[in-house]
Specification:
Protein name: Protein disulfide-isomerase
Structural class: alpha/beta
Enzyme class: isomerase
Oligomer: single chain
Strand order of the largest sheet: 17-19-18-1-20
Strand content: 15-25%
GO molecular function: protein disulfide isomerase activity
Largest sheet: 5 strands, mixed
Domain Thioredoxin: 25-144, 365-474
InterPro entries: PDI_thioredoxin-like_dom, Prot_disulphide_isomerase, Thioredoxin-like_sf, Thioredoxin_CS, Thioredoxin_domain
Number of helices: 13
Distance between the termini: 37 Å
Number of strands: 20
Length: 474
């Protein structure tokens, strides 16, 4: 059977990116900026002069960058008066001369903000707020010591407020191997967690004078409020913090305090089990109890659990191609990108259905638009359920565009793609096609990722060989 040769025209923009023609409107003479402007020519020299500098990588057309710009400027002005001053800088990653720099710092979307320490030797992602006051408070913590010394009960009460994860090292004296390892881990993870250290356990909530030093105690506002470890191997200590700082079942609702845990849930590499239900349902407590029990059963088995309120989960429903009529609904996604779902699930069915998933006896769910009944336009419509027939197994040369209906670059491409399709419509060996990437699942081998509109050409099901055509399509 002939093998299709497929060219992919990639015209999908990431959901968090927004296309706009310019970063700022020209309005007379510009005021002096407190944000340093860096580029490939002066970046290394400038960073090398600072033990702590914050760099935003932006694109002039990005709407989120435009929204951030005045907040970033305001924060830079405030932090310029800090002792010592905190330097904020920016790089136009859209400039051709700066693209290698952006690649070095793994810039995959805009804006991307990096914290560079020790003359650029240490690189961390900025994970704080995007408004001026929040930026200022976050960076003040980041520029100070990685771990705060707790000297009194008042110190402890201010730092450990019961609303967030806080990690404390207990040491008989602030020296020695264990103390140094704790401080190294605190420095490495300070962008994600708050750390403290003390020599007196009685100062802490749930204080216990019988605690044997050294020990690391993690406080959290969910599940058991306190967990300890005395394993001071670096990898083990980092793993303890990462695992212990995530709820057994992550709660997905409109409470902003839960959002950091939701982000951690979706960023972790585990399989993911998600139960979506209307929290006003009279049976919600029974669902929560059964789902919690299942999560406890699978703890440590590389599967994470989340329960989402229907009212807060509309974005997830759109992403997964689900409908409210399927609620109560349980969905499992695995690391291969496959999805499994059970619609209108009953509480007592949760454990048995998860066992079927564990045993490999479930059929994956594929998000797809309906196959078109008529598909006779010059640009053929491809959906997930006819991808094999129209593209992969067609034996033809196929130019396939993945697009998003709301994408400005995609809209500009429409007449061009149609013109190309018309010019090839009498060639039986060529197919020009398009696929809505927001409403259809796409096989991982296509490597469709959201960024700017670009053209990628590759051949599938042939010996590994990729044509080097990866240029922006504006």
């Amino acid at each position: 059977m002939a093998v299709a040769r497929v060219w992919i025209l990639f015209a999908v923009a990431v959901l968090l990116l927004c296309v706009s023609p310019s970063r700022a409107e020209e309005s007379g003479e510009e005021e002096p900026s407190f944000v340093l402007t860096l580029d490939a020519a002066n970046f290394s020299e400038t960073v090398g002069k600072h033990r702590f500098i914050v760099v935003e990588f932006y694109a002039p057309w990005c709407g989120h960058c435009k929204n951030l710009a005045p907040e970033y400027e305001k924060a830079a002005e405030i932090l310029s008066k800090h002792d010592p001053p905190v330097i904020l800088a920016k790089v136009d990653a859209n400039e051709e001369a700066n693209k290698e720099l952006a690649s070095k710092y793994e810039v995959k979307g805009f804006p991307t903000i990096k914290i560079l320490r020790n003359e650029g030797k240490s690189i961390q992602d900025y994970k704080g707020p995007r408004e001026a006051d929040g930026i200022v408070e976050y960076l003040k913590k980041q520029v100070g010591p990685a771990s705060f010394e707790i000297k009194s009960s008042d110190d402890a009460n201010k730092l450990i407020d019961g609303k967030k994860v806080f990690i404390v090292g207990l040491f008989p004296e602030f020296s020695g191997k264990e103390y140094e390892i704790f401080m190294d881990v605190a420095e490495k993870l300070r962008s994600d967690y708050d750390f403290g250290h003390t020599s007196d356990a009685k100062l802490l909530p749930h204080g216990d004078s019988t605690v044997k030093h050294p020990i690391v105690r993690l406080f959290k506002p969910f599940d058991e409020p306190v967990v300890d470890t005395q394993d001071f191997q670096v990898d083990a200590l980092e793993s303890f913090i990462e695992v212990s700082s995530v709820p057994v079942v992550t709660l997905f609702n409109k409470d902003p305090s839960n959002h950091p845990y939701v982000i951690k849930f979706f960023n972790n590499p585990n399989d993911k089990a998600m139960l979506f239900i209307n929290f006003s349902n009279e049976y919600v407590d029974e669902f929560k109890s059964k789902f919690q029990g299942a999560a406890e059963h699978y703890k440590g088995k590389k599967i994470s659990f989340l329960i989402g309120d229907l009212d807060a989960s509309q974005g997830a429903f759109q992403f997964f191609g689900l409908s409210e009529e399927q609620v109560p609904l349980i969905v499992v996604t695995n690391t291969d990108g496959q999805k499994y779902l059970k619609a209108n699930v009953e509480p007592d069915q949760i454990a048995s259905w998860l066992k079927e998933y564990e045993d490999g006896s479930l059929t994956p769910f594929k998000k797809s638009e309906p196959i078109p009944e008529v598909n006779d336009e010059p640009v053929k419509v491809v959906v997930a359920n006819n991808l094999d027939d129209v593209v992969l197994n067609s034996g033809k040369n196929v130019l396939l565009e993945f697009y998003a209906p709301w994408c400005g670059h995609c809209k500009k491409l429409v007449p061009i793609l149609e013109e190309v399709a018309v010019s090839f419509q009498n060639d039986a060996d060529v197919v020009i096609a398009k696929m809505d990437a927001t409403t259809n699942d796409i096989p991982n081998e296509f490597e469709v990722q959201g960024r700017r509109t670009k053209i990628k050409m590759l051949q599938l099901n042939l010996p590994p060989r990729r044509m080097n055509c990866n240029k922006d399509f504006a």
